[in-house]
């Protein structure tokens, strides 16, 4: 067993200073990190407990009409917050689709952003081939069990998917991740927070060493009337998405004036279906238009031996989610 030290950070500055050393990681709810440590997948030398930093769990209104969700806000508290339910129902639905009630009560928004893939081989520390866990060792999923893996944006180094439901909704809402680190504060547009695997699948995000997520900022609500988070999975609860869709529309009568579509379960990061969005804008919400638009989302899909079903499933899920968002289903 490896020795691990633990320190409770009294404030953000102390947390950042402590985490600027190699092998030091933050712990909040711990719902993913502790699993990884118990399995020998994560081997930190020190845990910095950030749960006592004042103010990081607050949810507050922003002057522009948006919402700031503190990084330590619990998933269940955020999902059930009146402002989130009323103004960002897409996000509330995504939270409630994730994990179990017990896990949502512990898990934090910042930790949800940092969730690691559920690839079977990544979680089995006894399995030698995994570029994400053991860089340069290969990818067992390429020729192995890859039913839950990516069909978009993968690389020969890694075909894992991001497991977060919350992040799919945040991608559609174009949230901003605020971080504080040794070089100061910065705001990361959501599309730039998670990475595609490329030749560094060991890196899930663009965070730098020592950077602490302080909040997720939501822009003013545009889609409260017409949005839907649809998750397709093997069982009705406590399962990760095979495919999920966050659909957010602005409508003028039956016509879509603007659309945001993000997919989960198909790529190493939440996947924006921008061509689908462009095709839907300015058009009446008909089944034929939707099917053509959904096909664009998977035009560049590259399925593997066991996950070809996701190509059709993603299209059907887009059609259903957008119809439900638009009130025509
Ligand atoms: Fe590892 Fe990624 Fe391959 Fe899974 S898909 S075995 S996480 S390298």
From TrEMBL:
Coiled-coil portions: none
Key words, A-Z: FAD, Flavoprotein
Keyword Flavoprotein: yes
Domain named FAD-binding PCMH-type: residues: 1-223
Database matches in PROSITE patterns: FAD_PCMH
InterPro entries: CO_DH_flav_C, CO_DH_flav_C_dom_sf, Diverse_Substr_Oxidored, FAD-bd_PCMH, FAD-bd_PCMH-like_sf, FAD-bd_PCMH_sub1, FAD-bd_PCMH_sub2, Mopterin_DH_FAD-bd
One Gene Ontology MF term: FAD binding
PANTHER family: OXIDOREDUCTASE, XANTHINE DEHYDROGENASE SUBUNIT C-RELATED
The protein's name: Molybdopterin dehydrogenase FAD-binding protein
Native source organism of the sequence: Caballeronia choica
């Amino acid at each position: 067993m490896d020795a691990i030290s633990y320190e409770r950070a009294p404030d953000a500055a102390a947390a950042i200073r402590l985490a600027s050393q190699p092998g030091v990681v933050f712990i909040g709810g711990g719902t993913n990190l502790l699993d990884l440590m118990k399995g020998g997948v994560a081997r930190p030398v020190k845990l910095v407990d950030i749960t006592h930093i004042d103010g990081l769990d607050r949810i507050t209104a922003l002057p522009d009409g948006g919402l700031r969700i503190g990084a330590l806000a619990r998933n269940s508290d955020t999902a059930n917050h009146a402002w989130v339910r009323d103004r960002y129902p897409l996000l509330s639905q995504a939270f409630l689709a994730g994990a179990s009630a017990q896990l949502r009560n512990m898990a934090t928004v910042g930790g949800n952003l940092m969730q690691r893939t559920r690839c079977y081989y990544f979680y089995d520390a006894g399995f030698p081939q995994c570029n994400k866990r053991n860089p340069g060792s290969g990818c067992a999923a390429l020729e192995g069990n890859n039913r839950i893996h990516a069909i978009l944006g993968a690389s020969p180094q890694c075909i894992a998917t991001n497991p977060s439901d919350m992040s799919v909704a945040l991608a559609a809402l174009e949230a901003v991740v605020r971080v504080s680190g040794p070089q100061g504060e910065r705001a990361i547009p959501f599309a730039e927070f998670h990475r595609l695997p490329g030749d560094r699948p060991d890196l899930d995000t663009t965070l730098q060493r020592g950077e602490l997520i302080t909040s997720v900022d939501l822009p003013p609500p545009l889609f409260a009337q017409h949005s839907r988070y649809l998750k397709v999975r093997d069982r009705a609860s406590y399962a990760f998405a095979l495919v999920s869709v966050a659909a957010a529309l602005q409508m003028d009568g039956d016509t879509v004036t603007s659309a945001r579509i993000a997919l989960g379960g198909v790529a190493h990061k939440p996947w924006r279906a921008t061509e689908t969005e462009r095709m839907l804008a300015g058009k009446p919400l008909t089944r034929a238009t939707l099917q053509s638009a959904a096909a664009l989302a998977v035009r560049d899909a590259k399925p593997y031996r066991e996950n070809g079903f996701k190509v059709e499933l993603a299209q059907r899920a887009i059609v259903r989610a957008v119809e439900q968002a638009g009130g025509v289903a």
